[in-house]
Amino acid sequence: MATDEDNADTKAGDGSAPDSSFNPRNCVDSRPESPLPDELFMTILESTCTFPPDVFATVMLNLIKNPNITSSHLFRADIFYDSERNDLNPTSSHNGNLAEHLKPEYRPLPFEIPGFACQRTIVRQLIPRNPQLDRPLVQTCHFYSSESDQGEQNIVLYLPHVSEPSKIPFYHPCVQRLAFAHNWPALPGSKATISVSYGLFPSTPLDTKLSRTALRLLQTVHKHGQGQLTGYEKRVHLDQLIPQQRYQDTYALLKAKYGRQLSEQWVEVTDPGKHVFEDIGIAAYLIELWSDMYSFPGSERESDKTTKRPPFPGFVDIGCGNGILTYILLAEGYEGWGFDARERKTWQIFPEHIQQKLQSRLLVPAILQMASEEQDPIWHNGVFNPQTFIISNHADELTAWTPLLSYMNDSAFIAIPCCSHDLAGSRFRAPPTTKAMKVDVNTARLPQQTSGPETGSLKRTEAQKKMPSAYSTLCSYVGSLAEAVGFAPEKDVLRIPSTRNQCIVGRHRPHAPSFGDKDERNARIVKLVEEELGRSVGEVSKEWIERAEKLAKKPGSGH
């Protein structure tokens, strides 16, 4: 729970807002009026606030459920017991208590605070990002409340299930107890306050690290509380398709297996810390996604007779870049292959049987090849084995084509957009929807973004400033192309160290046009491309091939 400002899971949108009113007061030497017993707690810091008790309770519950907000060393919290949740406590409406049936180490630790009533109890286990370095920690969290003529006071108490300092993991303050108090006075004009207090181990003094941690924890509570009060809404919603626990457990396994190995073998000039762990995260996501979509011999899901899943059809990683994602998936036993316009140095570090699955190929879609007089053996026409799962990870020029290729192959796909290119392969500012969908004529292509100071003719109007970002319109554009060929695209935000972390998944086609034979599919794609670009497929073919051949001559990048 030592905070870290570089938490990749939460900095994109954690339910907080910028905080300029935080002005904490050191309470160590001033003996503040705290509702906590002096013999058991030392109040470290206190700050005024303007948010009421219900906001404080909401903020604290969110921090309990999402400890990764306050520590980048943590993945999540697994909730073992919650006195207010029937799904965790099915006996709550009957005689008895589920807590009595938990293992002793998971049962809530009792704790009384004079003058306060315990309103809610949660037992959670903190799950570290690196289980080889840090161990999980079980913790009881109590919510207390007290009301009087003077106002309302609320306390949230954390009790680690350990008995000595040496058993406290690195990511948690080395204390016996940790408490947050919120005081909401009834007297008009009086200021509300929040504070953080420690119950220290007898052998552990208050040092600089503990003081710094208290400051950051209190600042986090204050920032989230003030943000809630002003109506701040979380902009990024993770784990829409894959449960957090499943993804993170698989990620941890893959990271332990491949993280150090690939980082130490890295031969590109780019940062392995980004590329290696980003692809490990994408591999973990795909493995869990596929477990929901397909059946695998010998797997536990194979015995689930209530849902019949087709067998895994294999994958193709178009624009595979450094090949790490393809390598991990192959090494984990998933059949498939990858190709890119240029071979990468990284390919040479993989075993020979993996290298054989990585090819230097240019993808020229079949309809563009048919419209061209040129032919080259290095070209691939985008026709794969039927239903092959298509991976498009930062595939640039191939991104917009991904749902169209999936339609051609009767396949599912995942697209993780990066740079914006149209169906001719040229850079452009994507519109939010396709022309082929006959949307409102006022939805026009947005102008290419410019760089440099916003002065003179380059200065943006207020209307332009409210335009969606180039990246968000690209993601919407790919989704609308998917809809144009019958997919019901699903969107998610990936837990990867990249600002380009949105994905579009196409696995359902509930309103698909008649699939037809190859000629019918080709005709539909030709019509869509010509409507999108406003020129003949022959012109598009020439432009695409010229760009593709130039791309093949460029030196390879780290991706």
Tell me what the structure shows.
The protein is of the alpha/beta class. Helices cover 28% and strands 19% of the residues. The protein has 2 domains: 25-229, Alpha-D-Glucose-1,6-Bisphosphate, Chain A, domain 4; 311-446 and 464-553, Rossmann fold, CATH 3.40.50. It has an 8-stranded antiparallel sheet with strand order 1-2-8-7-6-5-4-3. It has a 7-stranded mixed sheet with strand order 11-10-9-14-15-17-16, with helices on both faces. A hairpin with a 6-residue loop joins strand 7 (177-185) and strand 8. Helix 1 (53-65) packs across helix 2 (208-229). It is elongated. Residues 2-13, 89-96 and 438-458 have low confidence and may be disordered.
Oligomer: single chain
Beta-strand segment tally? 17
State the major sheet: 8 strands, antiparallel
Q: What is the share of helical residues?
A: 25-40%
Rg over C-alpha atoms, rounded to the nearest angstrom: 28 Å
Mean pLDDT: 85
For the terminal residues, how far apart are their CA atoms?
A: 34 Å
Given the C-alpha coordinates, what overall shape results?
elongated
- CATH architecture descriptor of the largest domain: 3-Layer(aba) Sandwich
Biggest sheet strand order reads: 1-2-8-7-6-5-4-3
SSE order in H/E notation?
A: EEHEEEEEEHHHEHEHEEHEEHEHHEEHH
Structural domain tally: 2
Low-confidence stretches: 2-13, 89-96, 438-458
CATH topology name of the largest domain: Rossmann fold
CATH class of the largest domain: Alpha Beta
Count of helices? 12
Beta-strand proportion:
15-25%
Helix/strand-derived category reads alpha/beta
